[in-house]
Amino acid sequence: MSSILEPGITFINKELKGKNIDRIDRRLKNLKDIFFDKTALEKMDPETVVYEVESYFPVEHDIEGGLFYGITYIHPGTVGNEYFMTKGHFHKIRNRGEFYCTLQGEGMLILMDENRNTWAEKMYPGSIHYIKGNTAHRTANTGNTILSFSAFWPSDAGHDYATISEQGFSKILVQRQGKPELISR
Amino acid sequence: MSSILEPGITFINKELKGKNIDRIDRRLKNLKDIFFDKTALEKMDPETVVYEVESYFPVEHDIEGGLFYGITYIHPGTVGNEYFMTKGHFHKIRNRGEFYCTLQGEGMLILMDENRNTWAEKMYPGSIHYIKGNTAHRTANTGNTILSFSAFWPSDAGHDYATISEQGFSKILVQRQGKPELISR
Fold this sequence. Notes:
Chain A has two helices and 16 strands. By secondary structure, chain A is mainly beta.
């Protein structure tokens, strides 16, 4: 038997292939909490896909020392003047970090520390972002095409979506005169 | 003051840019232990660069929960019939995993568990490899161009180079009739 194997997964021609790839999508109906302008939201089709995530979990969840990998694809669009974005979360184990590597499109990585200080980093193809521990993170698509990025995070990090769902970030990213601006709520 | 910042680092046009990027190279003189054919090795220029590594350490070493990022560039070449390769290591904290993503070139990821079972995975642009915990790993360039890949690993993983330096892997990757083959030593 040959001891030379094929790789676990491949990402070629913008397509993630391999065994055990987990695929989810998030639609407007799943994201009612996160957008500020509820009136604009109610006028839109709740089935509109805002983002999709493909993930590769080579070890069990909650195992210490392992890593997970995923690609997020955020569709272009706005709800009112707020860009399509991800739910955002802290890690359940707060000190766990994460790397994002932008593949295509343009956007913003919105970050908030535990004192609710919020800032953002520009995302564009080739930009690499380290998300420190104890920092909530969310991404928004500020362009006219899909924004996609790969992510690498510890297998025991977990997700705390509830804090953001209840309290939001202290700033929101809106389009003003065609440009993204981070403003206090 | 704008709260919209530039990304920490960028990897654009095959160039890693940003503050605090650590750069090292490993030459034949640094790698005397790892190649099998010492006679062939002695005939070569000890200053020959075998590989280079660019790393980004956004948190302190040995901090739990953080991640590190690096790109390794292995030059094409052989020592006798053994391909140019990295030192190889276990993680000091044995259960820490790692991801490799091949950027360019072709090669092999050589893996060995703690029972000294050795196998390999083919590396080519777009191949993604998860290195489980408790698994020694080394990469070899089997092509005629630079082999480069990005790596993501936990900031507290550490490196145990000594075990490999002393005991090697149980198999070596050699060129036979122009093709890579993994053979017992």
